């Protein structure tokens, strides 16, 4: 495992999945599937199971938890409510809309404490009462090598809370404005940026300020990474929402089939110089406005034992 690419992850199997109307106001990546609620929920669960199977086949350790609620349509995206960090640190986050606050669950945190070497759990979720939100590794794309937290300004990334997180966890905040072709702010940083060990993908054209754009490009390549510049179209196809993982046979990059189809041959070649691409077919889940990165909460923690659950809990 490299510090950037975890070998183990947490994923939440959806129960009553559907695009969340509460988050649609600022998530322009959402769409309406157009089928019955049962059909949509069943398809999402099937896509999830296939994705977990593919990751396990590749050698990724996947802890699966079943969502049992009917009022948490975005539960399949757990990377927003908690994150883990080298040295045994875990953070729990305040969420922007009420339905997403119900996704937090103590059994996930208790599993982390039992199976991994967790030293400190820092819980920021009480700050929701003050109207603050910082939606985990959706709002922040973290460079664990350079110790930088890249953050696009939005309702879901409060600047005061970001500064507090960065002070507590030892990251440098790198804040910027990211807008789409219509001039609308991007709701989560992880739809415009992916950071791997030896490559980074970002849509530089979406970063509004030219000086900040140049600085971000410079900092991303500083550790010797290849920089892949994504177009607006590729971002809309979720090409920026990928995650690098460690496996017994080397690094891999998980992204959706839709995202991979949007990349050109030269971009794919740059990724595959260091990490083979594993596409996951999740079109129904993507209708909620998130893709593969959002589904995967990486565990940057040392294992206490090797017992991983092999199916839903």
Classified in CATH, the superfamily is: L-arginine/glycine Amidinotransferase, Chain A
CATH topology: L-arginine/glycine Amidinotransferase, Chain A
Strands across the major sheet, in which order? Answer: 2-1-15
From the spread of the alpha carbons, the general shape counts as globular
Largest sheet: 3 strands, mixed
Count of DSSP H/I helices: 11
Q: What is the gyration radius calculated from CA atoms?
A: 18 Å
Order of helices and strands: EHEEEHHEHEEHEEEHEHEEHHEHHE
Instruction: Report how far the terminal alpha carbons are from each other.
Output: 25 Å
Total DSSP E strands:
15
Mean pLDDT: 92
Helical amount: 25-40%
Explain what you see.
This is Amidinotransferase. It holds the Pfam family DDAH_eukar. InterPro entries: Amdntrnsf_FN0238. With 313 residues, the protein is of the alpha/beta class. It has a single domain (8-298), classed as L-arginine/glycine Amidinotransferase, Chain A (5-stranded Propeller), CATH 3.75.10.10. 28% of the residues lie in helices and 22% in strands. The chain is built from 11 helices and 15 strands. The chain has helices spanning 37-57, 98-101, 106-115, 136-139, 159-169, 210-221, 232-236, 257-262, 265-272, 283-286, 292-295, and strands spanning 8-13, 61-66, 82-85, 89-92, 120-123, 140-143, 148-152, 172-176, 193-195, 199-202, 226-229, 243-247, 250-256, 276-280, 297-298. The strands form 5 sheets. A 3-stranded mixed beta sheet has the order 2-1-15. It has a 3-stranded mixed beta sheet with strand order 3-4-5, with no helix packed on it. A 3-stranded mixed beta sheet has the order 6-7-8, sandwiched between helices. α1 (37-57) links the parallel β1 and β2. The longest helix is centred in the N-terminal third of the chain and has 21 residues, at 37-57. The radius of gyration is 18 Å and the shape is globular. Mean pLDDT is 92; it is low at 309-313.
């Amino acid at each position: 495992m490299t510090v950037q690419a975890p070998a183990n992850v947490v994923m939440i199997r959806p129960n009553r999945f559907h695009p969340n109307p509460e988050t649609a106001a600022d998530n322009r990546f959402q769409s309406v599937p157009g089928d019955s609620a049962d059909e949509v929920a069943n398809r999402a669960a099937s896509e999830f199971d296939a994705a977990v199977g593919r990751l396990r086949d590749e050698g990724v350790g996947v802890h699966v938890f079943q969502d049992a609620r009917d009022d948490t349509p975005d539960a399949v995206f757990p990377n927003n409510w908690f994150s883990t960090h080298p040295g045994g640190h875990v953070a729990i986050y305040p969420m922007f809309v009420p339905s997403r606050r119900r996704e937090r669950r103590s059994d996930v945190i208790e599993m982390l404490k039992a199976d991994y070497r967790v030293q400190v759990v820092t819980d920021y979720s009480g700050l929701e009462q003050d109207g603050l939100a910082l939606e985990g590794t959706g709002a922040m794309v973290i460079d664990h090598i350079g110790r930088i937290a890249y953050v696009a300004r939005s309702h879901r990334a409060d600047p005061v809370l970001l500064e507090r997180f960065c002070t507590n966890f030892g990251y440098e905040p790198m804040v910027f404005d990211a807008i789409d072709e219509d001039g609308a702010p991007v709701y989560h940083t992880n739809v415009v940026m992916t950071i791997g060990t030896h490559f980074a993908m970002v849509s530089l054209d979406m970063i509004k300020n030219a000086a900040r754009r140049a600085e971000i490009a410079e900092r991303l390549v500083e550790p010797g990474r290849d920089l892949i510049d994504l177009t607006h179209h590729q971002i809309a196809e979720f090409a920026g929402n990928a995650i690098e993982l460690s496996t017994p046979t080397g690094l891999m990059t998980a992204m959706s089939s839709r995202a991979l189809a949007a990349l050109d041959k030269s971009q794919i070649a740059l990724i595959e110089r260091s990490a083979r691409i594993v596409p996951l077919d999740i079109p129904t889940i993507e209708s909620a406005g998130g893709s593969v990165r959002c589904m995967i909460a990486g565990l940057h923690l040392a294992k206490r034992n090797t017992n991983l659950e092999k199916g839903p809990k």
